[in-house]
Amino acid sequence: MGKGKLKKWEENATFEHVFEPPLDGIIGGRDFMKGTWHSEVFGNNNPITLELGCGKGEYTVELARRYPNRNFVGVDIKGHRFWRGAKISKNEGLTNVAFLRTRIEFIAQFFEENEVNEIWLTFSDPQPKDEKGNKRLTSAPFLARYRQIMPAGAVVNLKTDSPILYTFTHEVIAEQKLEILVDSADVYGELIQRIDAEMKDVLMIQTAFEKRWLSEGCKIHFTKFKL
Ligand SMILES: C[S@@+](CC[C@H](N)C(=O)[O-])C[C@H]1O[C@@H](n2cnc3c(N)ncnc32)[C@H](O)[C@@H]1O
Question: What is the DSSP letter of 39?
C-alpha cells in the first residue's frame, strides 16, 4: 500500500530539493527564491525547464535523466503528488531536479525575468466549464505570466488528451500569431513516425494521467510553440 498524504508531506519537508514557500512567494516583503535558482538551488548556469501541473513529476524526472546538463523544476499545488518524483530523484542522486509547491498563477513570484528557458504542460486540467478559458494553462493570462519569466521565443510544450484544451490552445496561438514548431492531434498514431529519435524518446515518456487516458482509448495531442 502507498504512503498516506501526511507521510508524504512530512518526507517532502526533509528533502533539500523540495520548496514549499508561502503561496504568494513573498516573505518579509521580499520575493522568495526569485533569481536564485541557478546560484542557490542548482549551483550551475544550465537552462531551466518547468513542468507546470507536474503531478508525480514523470516528465521532470525522465527529462532530468536524459539531459544532465539542463535543470528541471516540477511545479504543482499538491505536494503529496510530486513526493513520488522527489523521492525517485533523491534516491537516484539526480542533482538537476527540484520541486516547487505553489499555484501556477503565482509563478512569476518565484522566477526572475529570463530565468526559465522552456515549459512543459502535461495533461493540464482542461477546465471545461471555464467559458472564457482564463483558467486554462495556455490562456492569454497564463502566457503573459510565462513571458514574465522566459525570454522572447522560448518554447512551450503542451501534451494533452483533451480536445477542448488542444483546440483552445490553437485559438490562442492564432490570436497571438505565435509560431508552431511541432503539432499533432495523434502523437502515437502519426507524430512518432515523422519525428527524430530524440524527440520520439521524449514524447514516449508517459505520465500517470496519460496512462489512464490511453487505457481508455483516448488520443494524445501535442503542440510545441514559441512564445
Ligand atoms: C490532470 S493532473 C496532471 C498531472 C500530471 N502532469 C500527469 O500528467 O499525470 C493536473 C495537475 O495540475 C495541478 N494543478 C492544476 N491547477 C493548478 C494550479 N493552478 N497551480 C498548481 N497546480 C495545479 C493539479 O494539482 C494536478 O496535479
Answer: I
Strands (E), the chain: 18-19, 26-27, 30-31, 48-52, 71-76, 97-101, 118-122, 155-160, 179-184, 221-226
Residue 2 alpha carbon to ligand 1 centre in Å: 20
CA of 175 to the centre of ligand 1 (A): 25
* Domain ranges within the chain, ordered by starting residue: 5-226
125 is catalytic: yes
Q: Are 85 and 56 in contact (CB under 8 A)?
A: yes
Furthest CA-CA distance within the chain: 53
pLDDT category at 32 given cuts 50, 70, 90 is: confident
Ligand 1 atom closest to the CA of 102, numbered from 1: 21
Q: What is the pTM of this model?
A: 0.96
CATH number of 5-226: 3.40.50.150
Residue of the nearest CA to atom 23 in ligand 1? 53
Interval 165-190: pLDDT, tens: 999 999 999 999 999 999 999 999 99
Q: Which protein residue's CA is at the shortest distance from atom 20 of ligand 1?
A: 103
Distance 104 CA to ligand 1 centre (A): 9
